[in-house]
Write a structure and sequence with these properties.
Structural class: mainly beta
Distance between the termini: 64 Å
Strand order of the largest sheet: 1-3-4-7-6
Helix content: under 10%
Strand content: 35-45%
Oligomer: single chain
Shape: globular
Length: 86
């Protein structure tokens, strides 16, 4: 009987930081993601290379303990240029 890989979708939507930079199509890195009240290490894939220390968001499960990530600012509202109080 053949075992099937189980995707860990509980990490989707979690943010964290790359502890090992990704290499785009050339290979994965590693991300520490805030999940289940703590932090957990996941294999991190990205479309383009991302350096160590990049803040990321897990967007797709790629198998057990593996996720696709995109860069994500610590405070997404800062990226909008701030919002002026009215």
């Amino acid at each position: 009987m053949r075992e099937q890989a189980v995707q860990d979708e509980s990490a989707l939507g979690s943010t964290g930081v790359l502890t090992i930079g990704t290499r785009g199509a050339a290979g994965p890195g590693e991300a520490l993601l805030g999940i289940r009240g703590g932090t957990e290490a996941y294999i991190a894939w990205s479309e383009r290379p991302l350096p160590r220390g990049t803040q990321v968001l897990a967007v797709t499960a790629r198998g057990p303990r593996a996720v696709e990530v995109v860069p994500w600012p610590e405070d997404p509202l800062d990226e909008l240029g701030g919002i002026e109080p009215s």
